[in-house]
Amino acid sequence: MTAQPRHFIDLWEIEPAALRAMLDDAKARKAARAGWPKGRADADAPARDHTLAMIFQKNSTRTWFSFDAAIRQLGGASIISTGADMQLGRGETIEDTARVLSRMVDAIMIRADKHADVAAMAAHASVPVINGLSDRGHPCQILADLMTFEAHRGPIAGKTVAWVGDGNNVCSSFIEAATKLGFKLNIASPVVYGPNRADVARAAELQGRVEVTRDPKAAVEGADLVIADTWVSMGDKDGDERLFALKPYRVDAALMGLAASDALFMHCLPAHRGEEVTAEVIDGPQSVIWDEAENRIHAQKSIIAWCLGAI
Ligand code: CP
Ligand code: NVA
Question: Best substitution site from 66, 269, 290, 291 to test ligand 1's pocket, by max atoms within 8 Å of Cβ?
Fold first, then answer.
């Protein structure tokens, strides 16, 4: 029987030791290439002779460029398309697309409108499939975020992270990470835009420390890391209602002032200054958003390397 490919779909399915190995690999790879031109391949080039297909059904800057830079730095190559430019855009099934691409490339990254399409791609591909964001999660982002926190403040285990705003896809991946890696996650959102209930329940079953509140001040009190994300995610149709309901959840200097004195601020980007976060905070001294964005490359490399069995 052929071994199952190593998919990177959501963090629930990945052992904490594997997540830790990816984080350590990302850190080591980043350190080893300090000062190098960005196009030079890593000395071990673990993806040499390998091709990554990337499919985007939604817009992207960071995921698109970081994965393409990542596969090149690993010594491999990429083939990139929007879903609309493929036969997918004319109704060919995800299942058939998965079977065809599996004959042509060594791994597939997909940014999908619907999480069910990521799952179907994984179920029918014979090569690893990576979730480059769906409506249910953004696990690649979380690896970069954890890497960034640990570079500045040391191990995330035992720390307190405050998520303020929409309980969206990125929030779900943080719930998974908190449960797997032993940090406390306080989520402040309005009831109507709260975190996915199944994820919160699963975290509780697994003794994850995830608290949900309506009160942003309670969530941020003493936190080591404060995180905001857009109030209107790609695919959300109720933009006006969201902007209204989420107004009390803006991260401003007064709210940051309730966090630990050395607390960091993160945002996966793209940001909307004056909506989910003030310019004073996101462009201020506690913000590490540019390290966070850069670390997408390093984290993506380790995810690809893990999927290919090189970690
Ligand atoms: N943070 C993130 O995934 O950004 P993009 O949507 O630009 O890829
Ligand atoms: N929650 C946002 C993240 C973008 C990277 C979205 O899904 O649009």
Answer: 269
